Fold each of these.
Amino acid sequence: MAKKINKKEIGRLLEEWAKEFTVFVPSLEKDTSKPAKWDGKDVSFIEKYRNTTVPPKSLFFPLLEEMFRYEKDGKGYQVTAPAVRNQKTLIFGVRPCDASALAMLDTAFADGYQDPYYLDRRKNSVLIGLTCINPYDSCFCTSLGSSPSEIKNVDIMLTDTGDIYLVEEISDKGKELTGKSNILTAASEADIARAKTVKDNAGQKVTRKVNTKNITKKLQAINEDKEFWEKAAAKCVSCGVCTFFCPTCYCFDITDAKEKKQVKRQRCWDSCQFGIYTQMPAENPRSEKWKRVRQKVCHKYEYYPMNYQQTIACTGCGRCIRLCPVNWDITQVINSVPEKVTVESK
Amino acid sequence: MTTTVINGRKKFFSQNNVYVPHVCVIEKIVDETPTIRTFHFKFKDEKMQQAFTFESGQFGEYTVFGSGEATFCISSSPTRKDHFEVALQRAGKVTNAFHRLEVGSEIGFRGPYGNSFPLELLKGKNLVFVGGGIGLAPLRSLIWNVIDNRDLYEKVDIIYGARSPSDLSFKYDLETWSKDTRLNMVTTIDRADPAWSGRVGMVPTVLEQVAPSPKNAIAIVCGPPIMIRFTFPALAKLGFTPDQMITTLEKRMKCGIGKCGRCNIGPVFVCKDGPVFSYAQIKSFITNEA
């Protein structure tokens, strides 16, 4: 049963949720939009943001986090891991592209060894999705089996239909939440029909396309085609912004930092676009830029799908296109991958 | 300490967290070459010392407290569990800090990670070990393993080389092995040296001179990339097929468990799909990337 809420009541709903959860909403911090802790009052974010620059992965896999710390006492080194990260979080306004990206990170962080930091946080989270009524021209989610109103990976989906939000309960977690609230009322057939029009219109606004047909096989065929990749990488400046803000990128570095008598072992986002990323004492397998650009493109469209049930690890959020200082465009690269390859394999 | 099985292999977690290292104590330090040292270590927790198991070819993530963490194979054999050994060359921040440690110093260890040399496949075969420089470290774990179960294997050749006599690692092992009548130990150095009366020549060249038969044989290769690149063609010339050649690869790693992203070659992650591969598995990309 779909429900609805008057837009003016959204603050009350968030207040209600804030009693149980730490609520995160789209915010502006130092000129960068990101999901941040709700101040409990301001609801102006509702009309203000299209999508945040920093994807919600930052809440589960922070830019920088402490893994544990150690210090030496009379008995030697003592290692102390942080307490279980069981804070219950609710993320409001997650776009479908970012929600499906989290599903991909879930797979990677749980495969084989469990990553306790990511998975603990994720386990205790609720995603409140928001239909993306105003997608960017750099967006291309509809080419990747999704849409601005895709409900698959959120717990509750909201759609702005003017004065009200249509509230769809998707998961059990979502149903439990909406069932508890008396601010929500039953949606009428007309509300649902209006929301459908909004969703359809949003879908039609996504005009950029990427041709994903047989893409994994096509990329396999040109993996060693240096000419193709040099052309694809020609204008890249290896700044790494595309990977940093990519909602499906999860590479990290691990370092130690001294803090008084203790040392913190911490991890931070890293990027396959940096030459030093793969540097070893005697050699570097990706010292050339074209190999790094190939890694970025192929990890998403070839390697990840090969390892995880043919799922392309790109959600079409368009951040890598919007944020690139030199207008590098992954859709152009993918769309230029030849259908039939004549390069001799080595 | 908690134990769990992941992909059929036993794992030992400290504080139930894969990233938290176990504290170990260095028992002995051996100078191998001017830049390589072997560290013998034991787990500080007696229960962990008893429980810990690994297989030849697996690696660990080692912490030098205060400096950071780095990846090295376990260079001792799982058949000798009194202590564990890691051999490493001074190169970067962590290895330099490692070389400054003393007997009694504490280090962190997490692992074992990765796959291992395929013992079942090797049983009943003639084994040809081809190593260069620090590349003997992972081979050595398997060589001692083979020696300790000598009847399970047929003929064993070991061809090992380094730049100069002083660059030969594990000289005490080379000496023992050269006296072992059930092993054919061939040691070589790259260029003639007044202090050396033995064989001179690059490892791939010497391999061709020794010319082990490919019949019922498996070659296990580890050394610097340049040596590996020339050793595979040399083995092919002798009649070895790509699935008769096994190597162990080295890449920069941070997590060791398939998450941090940097050790992949195409869809293959050296940390979790390797580090041991047959040449058949990797020959398509070794020309381009390895």
Amino acid sequence: MTNKESLLTPPVTTSHSRSQPSARSRAYLGTLAAIVWKEVRVERHTRRTLSVMLVFSLAAVVVFNFALELELDAARRVSSGLLWIVILLASTLGLNRSLAAEQEARSIDALLIAPVDRSALYLGKVISVLLFVLLLEAILLPLFIAFFNKPYWRPQVILIIILGTIGYIAAGVLVASMSIQTRTRDVLLPVLLLPLSLPAVLSAATAVSAFMGPELPTWSEVQAPIALVIAFDILMLTAGLFTYHYVVEE
Amino acid sequence: MKRNHLNRLTEIFNWSAILMVAVTMLLIFFWAPTERTMGDVQRIFYFHVGAGWVSMVAFLIALVGGVLYLRRPSPLWDTVALASVEIGLAFATMNIASGSIWGRPAWNTWWIWSPRLTSVTVMWLVYVAYFMLRGAIEDEQKRGRFSAVYVIVGFVTVLMTFFSIRFLRDIHPVLIGESSEAAQGLQEFESGLDSARMGITLTVTTLTFSLLYVAWLFNRIRLQRMLDEAERLKMQVIDRLQRST
């Protein structure tokens, strides 16, 4: 209902104009914007993704605090790891929810009928899920600053978290699109996605924890993990753009 | 490939692999010199490096099989990818186990969560999950397509494993190529091989393990063909039974 209606409202452009590269790329961006807009509208009406992620993260933060209560210093030392665990598990839930709902409503079939590039569908999905997870992080970070008294407000930290999230979601959308089509769909996603995204997440967590001290680290200290995160982002996005249509098409 | 050719090739590879494994054992245990600081323990190095190297090559071939399958879906490419992941995992397990056994005398611990050891564990997990994915899909074509995509994406962890010690501070030495300045400070011993015999033994071990990979691959393809054939015959029998009743 909302899906169909929202598909029609934004400025939908098809890729008919093959004459000029600029016209084509404008059409591509138009498609992308339409897909992201559709996701945002669905989310605004149903709140199916964000609500689950948010409530889960809050519960997880409380559980961690409870588990580490006796050791406040230890909790502070491992807080950047905790932050990433919460983000990972919450976005796994969000990915499952967002993509499975689309599968159940068969709205993915409607999207596939549209004469648009499959990579635009993939990118649109990545951007929209990314928006939701970034929103979640915007709520989580102040909580972590309050609970653990660590400088999560530093712009470098926020940048690293965004970079790590991009790679995670890029892999997540691709893997979740596969896992929801299998028999054991809800269980399969974390089994596939958690190890796959660990290289990016571990590097990002290392880099974030380097910024947790009272003084800023030197560039050479954080250069390698940040480079690994960026490499992971690029590799995953490229792999997703090229292989997504094999995953969604029959 | 005709079945006769496949059978003969498999046999050739089987026997040459057996012969080469025997030769390699002799080289490792009797011909290679004893290392000065670590003694006989260092002989595990040949297994460790050989298995690690071949596991990565196997995962690379699985990636190639996946790409070829996506370009033109054929059961053969799916089997090549599947077999390569299976064999690669066997070698990766050998690599991790031998590394852990070697770590006990060299680093005085079975396991440290250093970047290299972490990334290799992650790689191992990613390829184990490959079987979970395959097991969850019944439709043959969809299974082939999805596992091809997964094996391509999963290769990122192999790259990360290969490059992690070249970028990050690690207790694990770099064997091929230069390690970064930061990483060098932590190395416990020089990674250069101090004798030509060691180099030759390592090369032969790696070649033998590669041959073992090829032999296993051929056996696996043959096995898959037999499974398919058995499945086809089973269907025939069911069909005939149904018609007769």
